[in-house]
Design brief:
- This protein is an alpha/beta fold.
- Helices cover 42% and strands 12% of the residues.
- Strands 1-8-2-3-4-5-6-7 form an eight-stranded mixed β-sheet, with helices on both faces.
- Helix 5 runs antiparallel to helix 7, helix 12 packs across helix 13 and helix 15 runs antiparallel to helix 16.
- The longest helix is centred in the N-terminal third of the chain and has 29 residues.
- It starts with a helix and ends with a helix.
């Protein structure tokens, strides 16, 4: 890794000849690809290593934060905070290591001008009603978009009939090549004009894609790194605002009164960041979130820091070798009534981590789960699957499909006080789910178990007994030329030695057998 870093520096050194720099650049790229592949194999083969890494970094961040809080407190206590900045910062510095790490990343990215997301817009580019119905012979984008926006290359225009279909829609939306983020919304049941009030059998389905890119600089697509950081902190992100806006625009187009938007039931399927958005909406009060999540299916989502409402059915699917669900630093435990499902994958030849987090792989997993629940509908997983499937279209139930392009404006950076960027970050009144970081095994319960002798002890007892028996016989048999009643130096009749000491051979042998017998 250090050699690759050195090659990278050589490739960027302007004082070297161009041919030498080009060779160093090629070697650096080759070594970087090899290191990346080896790292992917390491994390793929060792599930749980990702969680340990994130928690180690969070622990280090917590120590740095504690030192920073001590410094700010000392400035305030010693009267050195003349402009009040230390006091203002002290109240806002997070106490948790992970929160401090993410908040610092968000503040630094914003202060340096990398995170420039502004106002969020959502505009439909396909409406199945305008296309002649969901079963139109030639579906395609049929609504105009603003000038300069490319026509999204979406291929799936029909209403989903299964959870696997909603997952497959996400895989299709990833490759739509829209100006921003493509979002698919489906209305099931009577339209808002036929049934203006909520609770008349109408519900909404939404498929939400994940992160579009990991670049530092913001783009018109709101599914970026800034939205990732905001979502793990449960701060409103541009991606979340865009999904809510797309749902509201769909309800508006369908004739649902605005005062009923937060009461319309919504089933969301989200991959990666899309699952974070869906979980955050399911954890918030409908009147605050603007939509009422009643069911959520997440795939490869780091959302265990949030607790969903008790009236939401949630199925969290995560592959064992997917590192993304662990980037929030939480263990694989459910903080609420959600049901978690895992699947262990076989490592492919190349790109194992990409394969483990791919939306196509998760689509396959969701279809497996659905088939299993239909064959053997027992247990919490199958009950949750059926509860989520109850919101899908049934039979010839009317549907309406709308596809949206969601994008954000980019703000122009301006000079100003960078410390105020940290102070002015919006922070909701929210506390993450707590997981104990210190782990210790359960105490052992002592039990009086009988001791089983070893083979060596068995042999020792048998040999000792045989030796004792032979010794006893030799004491009782007189030597040649000696009579039983002679006064020679033979053994005494009572078994004692001639000097009056008890030789103890016979008793010793029998004692050893008796001891082993008790242990057996």
């Amino acid at each position: 890794m250090l050699a690759n870093a050195a090659m990278t520096l050589i490739a960027e050194a302007p004082v070297l000849p161009e041919d030498l720099r080009e060779q160093a650049r090629r070697r650096s790229e080759s070594a970087g690809a090899r290191i990346l592949e080896d790292s992917q194999r390491l994390f793929f083969d060792e599930p749980g290593l990702d969680t340990l890494l994130i928690r180690s970094v969070s622990s280090l961040s917590r120590r740095v934060t504690q030192a920073g809080r001590a410094y700010l407190g000392a400035r305030v206590g010693l009267g050195l905070d003349r402009d009040g900045r230390a006091a203002a910062m002290l109240r806002l510095v997070p106490t948790r290591g992970y929160d401090a790490l993410m908040t610092s990343a968000l503040a630094i990215g914003t202060a340096l001008g990398h995170f420039r997301g502004g106002a969020v817009h959502a505009q439909a580019f396909f409406d199945s009603i305008a296309a002649g119905g969901p079963a139109s012979a030639a579906p395609g984008p049929n609504l105009p978009l603003p000038a300069g926006h490319p026509v999204p290359a979406v291929r799936r225009f029909g209403a989903p009939r299964s959870l696997g279909d909603m997952a497959a829609d996400i895989d299709d939306l990833y490759f739509a090549m829209a100006y921003g983020q493509a979002v698919k919304v489906t209305r099931v049941g009577p339209s808002g004009r036929d049934a203006p009030r909520a609770g008349r059998g109408r519900r909404w389905l939404v498929s939400i894609t994940g992160t579009d890119h990991w670049d530092l600089d913001s783009t018109p697509n709101p599914s970026d790194l800034e939205s990732n950081i905001r979502e793990v902190l449960n701060a409103p992100s541009a991606a979340r605002v865009g999904v809510v806006r797309a749902l509201h625009e769909a309800m508006r187009a369908d004739g649902v009164p605005a005062d009923q938007w937060s009461a319309e039931p919504v089933l969301a399927v989200g991959h990666s960041q899309g699952g974070m958005v869906a979980t955050a909406l399911a954890a918030a009060d409908p009147s605050d979130a603007g939509v009422k999540m009643v069911g959520v299916l997440t795939m490869g989502t780091p959302s265990r820091r949030l607790r969903i409402r008790d009236d939401v059915a949630m199925l969290a699917v995560a592959h064992d070798q997917d590192v993304v669900p662990a980037i929030d630093g939480t263990p694989a435990r459910a903080p609420d009534r959600r049901v978690m499902v895992g699947r262990r994958l076989v490592r492919p030849r190349q790109g194992p981590l990409y394969y483990a987090h791919s939306s196509a792989t998760y689509t396959e997993t969701v279809r497996h789960i659905e088939r299993r629940s239909q064959v053997a509908p027992w247990g919490r997983v199958d009950r949750t699957v059926e509860e989520l499937r109850s919101h899908l279209p049934r039979g010839d139930e009317p549907t309406r499909v709308l596809l949206f392009d969601v994008w954000q404006d980019l703000l122009e950076p301006r000079r100003g006080s960078t410390w105020r960027t940290y102070v002015e970050l919006d922070r909701p009144e929210w506390q993450p789910a707590e997981f104990a970081e210190d782990w210790s095994p359960n105490p052992l319960v002592p039990r009086p178990l009988p001791r089983v002798p070893s083979v060596i002890e068995e042999l020792h007892g048998a040999v000792t007994g045989a030796v004792g028996a032979v010794a006893g016989v030799s004491q009782r048999v007189p030597s040649r030329g000696e009579g039983a009643g002679s006064g020679g130096e033979g053994a005494a009749a009572d078994g004692t030695a001639p000097d009056g000491r008890d030789d103890g051979h016979d008793d010793q042998g029998r004692g050893a057998d008796a001891l082993l017998g008790e242990e057996r």
